[in-house]
From TrEMBL:
GO terms for biological process: apoptotic DNA fragmentation. One of its GO terms (cellular component) is extracellular region. The lineage of its organism: Eukaryota, Metazoa, Chordata, Craniata, Vertebrata. Hydrolyzes DNA under acidic conditions. Does not require divalent cations for activity. Participates in the degradation of nuclear DNA during lens cell differentiation. It comes from Ailuropoda melanoleuca (Giant panda). One of its GO terms (molecular function) is deoxyribonuclease II activity. This is Deoxyribonuclease-2-beta. The keyword Signal applies. Keywords: Endonuclease, Glycoprotein, Hydrolase, Lysosome, Nuclease, Signal. Its main location: other. Its EC number is 3.1.22.1. It is found in: Lysosome.
Amino acid sequence: RWQKMTARPLRTALALLFFGLFVVLEATTISCRNEEGEAVDWFTFYKLPKRQDEESRQTGLEYLYLDSTTRSWRRSKQLMNSTESVLGRTLQQLYEASASKNNNTAYLLYNDGAPTSANYSRKYGHTKGLLLWNRVQGFWLIHSVPRFPPAPEEGYDYPPTGRRHGQTGICITFKYNQYGAIDSQLLVYNPNIYSCSIPAIFHQELVHMPQLCTGSSSSKIPGRHLTALQSARGQKFLHFAKSDSFLDDIFAAWMAQHLKTHLLTETWQRKRQELPSNCSLPYHVYNVKAIKLSGRSYFSSYQDHAKWCVSQKRAKNSWTCIGDLNRSPYQAFRSGGFICTQNQHIYHAFQGLVLYYEHCN
């Protein structure tokens, strides 16, 4: 009788203890966030370009949004410079971690057009993104926005340089066991890191990021490296990373051939700096020339600083890739990469944006 009486309070106390630990763990779990601040496995955004006509009321801050809980693009009610935007909500975790000076949380911000610099650095990769993580999980945000985001102590803002052109990005939530593979990919990237904090508890498992953070890396950089990644909820990704010693167009020479699919590529088509569509290899690469929105609305690739590609319609393999590099002769000399998925919602969302593309001569 005495054992029965003491066992019940003990079980209750243990249950409360585990519940308390679960609540604390959930409260500190780092994740991509939607506009309500709720954790999502991944999201992607398409920041629309600022229209040049006077009749347009667009500010260059509107964006399309898609995440792991939805099926297609929706136009956000938020503007990109709002702290209630998807980027504002997600990056709030960075500012909280930085302010708390928590030795269990790490972050790394990189951009070849750093917010604190007047010039673009060609010494480093043509890469833009940030990572925030602890020993449970974190997220990796890959984007195309110059001068973004500000250093953590500056708080959230969206730069004027990111308004004029279209921009894309993808945020993926990863368990900590994926960060070793991400660590190797960043070595190939050779990113221009302008703000970072990687406490000592991570240094044994993550070799390259702490060295890149301090500018002391002496590791030999491979010409290119491909790795498989898996999101916290099991979505599979492939990440292509090329160094500046891989002197070729990443789309035609590597990605299309490896994925075994014809690719429609949307990258910044600056005049006299674009590569033509390429049909010289078994799998072809075609330049998208115009992006369609709802109704008759569309915009040209010349207005778009985004970097993405999708498999051609009716392709056997339906891939979508979002990343860092343009189809330009000059980008063949830069490091960077793309993260690719066969998620059908992402594929149909991006495939549906293609108005027309350039065929090979």
